[in-house]
Amino acid sequence: MNPSEEFVEQGISQQNLRTVSSTTVITLAYQSLGVVYGDLCISPLYVYKTTFSGKLSLHEDDEEIYGVLSFIFWTITLIALFKYVFIVMLADDNGEGGTFALYSLLCRHAGLSILPNQQAADEKLSEYVTEGSADTWRSSALKSFFEKHPRFRKGLLIFVLLGTCMAIADGVLTPAISVLSAVSGVKLKITELHENHIVIISCVILVGLFSLQHYGTHKVAFMFAPIVTAWLLCLTGIGVYNIFRWNSHIFHALSPIYMLKFLESTGVEGWISLGGVVLTITGVETMFANLGHFSPLSIRIAFTFLVYPSLLLTYMGEAAFLSKHHEDLERSFYKAIPETVFWPVFIVATFAAVIGSQAVISATFSIISQCCALNCFPHVRIIHTSSKIYGQIYIPEVNWMLMCLSLAVTIGLRDTSMMGHAYGLAVTTVMFVTTCLMAMVMIIVWKQNTFTAVAFLLVFGSMELLYISACIFKVPEGAWIALTVSSIFMAVMYIWNYGTMKKHQFDVENKVSMNRIVSLGPSLGMVRVPGIGLVYTNLVTGVPAVFGHFVTNLPAIHQVLVFVCIKSVQVPYVCEKERILISRVGPKECGMFRCILRYGYKDLQQENYSFENRLVSGLVQFVETEEQTASKATDFCGEFGNSDIEAFDSSVHTTTISYPEEDRARCSCDIQVMTSDIGRVESFLLKDESLQILKAKESGVTYVLGHSYAKSKKPSSIFKKFAIDVVYAFLSKNSTEPNILMKVSPTSLLEVGMIYYV
């Protein structure tokens, strides 16, 4: 693997990107074509057809064609080039882009997060960066507003989820419209081909596309960039040919005067047709979301010097062709292709459509994974598709769901114009959400003046609202699909988040008092059996209610007890050395600890190493370090990094201990050797408690998993009863449990059931 490929596969931090060579940046720019721009570059297949699909008619003076081209030019220039490439890409979250990255920045800088279990120790993470200039009165006022009004914090999350759900709808519509648009071109050469045959061929390609997802993008990624490059070169060549062949004066349409003339002459119909124009910038959100795998400079170079001019020449060339062929609106793209190169361009177009669909499908997997981290979607089984490329994932349930929905759209509509209306509404909504979040980032994070943020919001927000209003008028003509899909996902996300937060509230209100634990003595009033018990809980402090319920029905517990909490923090990634916090719960004699696993919103919440061995190794190091720091509690950083000590006397002393990298790599092997011969361990001069932990590991590890079943209260409304007793219960039953994330053997699992009322 060459260095440039390694940069793309592992991701490059913004700090490291400043030091890479110009050759590497150019290489990254080339490779970004296949990953970032697939969706954006296939738009010429259906833009003009969708725009002129309504009652808009063409006159001999070509004023409508010139007006649409003028709108296309200024839309790509202002929104894609100026807004996204030159402004929005500056708002990265430790190198990551996308809607969640903007929301994460706001959460850290303004305390907007509604995630439970947030700790002060989380702010010490290496990626939890909030440094910058001092707060201005504007940023302070905005922060204070959200602090005083929790409902607006909740409203902001719902607003972000709205954009997220529209992005998921995009993942349903993009494969359908892209593949159907590409395949429909063959009908020009094989005229006897029935429309049903076109739909069948498209469905076969869609089934094949989704069936190959479990192999991962990296299996075919090497050919993405060459195909998209070839596609862009084809578009450029065809565009230049059509300009000189049909209308060399088409560049006059770039004047904004033609936009005004267009709206004046066409009226309401012209305004509604703008829902098709917005399809020219589909994929700009994907460009921002893929920022983590490439540098901003490389993406800017690729867009500014290749993608942008290529798309403009393509749309100008197609407009030049239409100015002389008004009757070919339905298939203007393929009609404008010279006869001698039709079949090569058709083949490249089909491959480009598949690549564009692949990018959106992969982005949907990433979005669902991030929603799970924010407690806004049930935990699903996530599979790594590459042992080298971090972040390439596959979610089986989501994949087949997207396939069924895409097939339903393709078979049900059979019309790319109707799909385009839904597609446009989804895209414009996501862009408007980004604009609003970006305005807040300018004030809270960048500390810009209010005028700058308001100007940004007014300029770009007004344009996007114009397009949204045009798309809304197309709801009866296909845009309802985007609303339906996004509404379903919004309902699922809100119900899941509501039920999860109520569950956490129940756990907090019913946790076992520490005074009660201490009063029971070292044995906790139970029989202490050999072994280690891992009790999974949602709490980062205190003893969970499930523990009390467990010992009430089975008054025996393991010699060493560890409360394990899996939680998310508002950073994209948490490095391995900072992943786990080790804590002591209660007095030393009780033998109870807490293990907190922290994940970023782009981390995959599953462990591929031997979790038991690493945990035991951390407990031993924790105990040894605790002894060395006299009688004070220790904030321990061993192989896991910083560990938070919940000392019973509340006094905390912090030390940091670093270990060589090779020692951390041998963790699993060391524990196996240590537990196989306890006699040899004594030669290490370990303390008594350390020996007890190792002996307990040798006796076995048991995972105690609590199942909390939500029930609605009797006086609840019918809607709430349906949401909790039916929808949330179904989602809970089918969500992935922590034992799957930790790869726990069923023979080591003990499940405890509880019921709570909301």
How would you describe this structure in keywords?
758 residues; alpha/beta; six-stranded mixed β-sheet; two-stranded antiparallel ribbon; 31 helices; 57% helix; disordered N terminus; transmembrane helix
Structure summary:
57% of the residues lie in helices and 9% in strands. The protein is α/β, with parallel strands linked by helices.
How can the largest sheet be summarized?
6 strands, mixed
Look at the structure and give the mean pLDDT.
80
What would you call the shape? elongated
Strand ordering within the main sheet: 5-6-4-3-9-10
Which stretches of 5+ consecutive residues score pLDDT under 50?
1-19, 630-685
- The count of DSSP E runs of length 2 or more, i.e. the number of strands, is 10
Alpha plus pi helix count: 31
Q: Rounded to an integer, what's the Rg over CA atoms?
A: 29 Å
Portion of residues in helices? 55-70%
Strand content is 5-15%
The N- and C-terminal alpha carbons lie at a distance of 54 Å
Based on secondary structure, the structural category is alpha/beta
Keywords: Ion transport, Membrane, Potassium, Potassium transport, Transmembrane, Transmembrane helix, Transport
Pfam families: K_trans (PF02705), K_trans_C (PF22776)
Subcellular location: Cell membrane; Membrane
Transmembrane segments: 65-86, 156-177, 197-215, 222-244, 270-289, 301-321, 341-368, 389-411, 423-446, 453-473, 479-496, 517-536
Structure description:
The relative contact order is 0.12. The two termini are 54 Å apart. A hairpin with an 8-residue loop joins strand 1 and strand 2. The chain is an alpha/beta fold and 758 residues long. It has a six-stranded mixed beta sheet with strand order 5-6-4-3-9-10, sandwiched between helices. Strands 1-2 form a two-stranded antiparallel sheet. Strands 7-8 form a two-stranded parallel sheet. The protein is 57% helix and 9% strand.
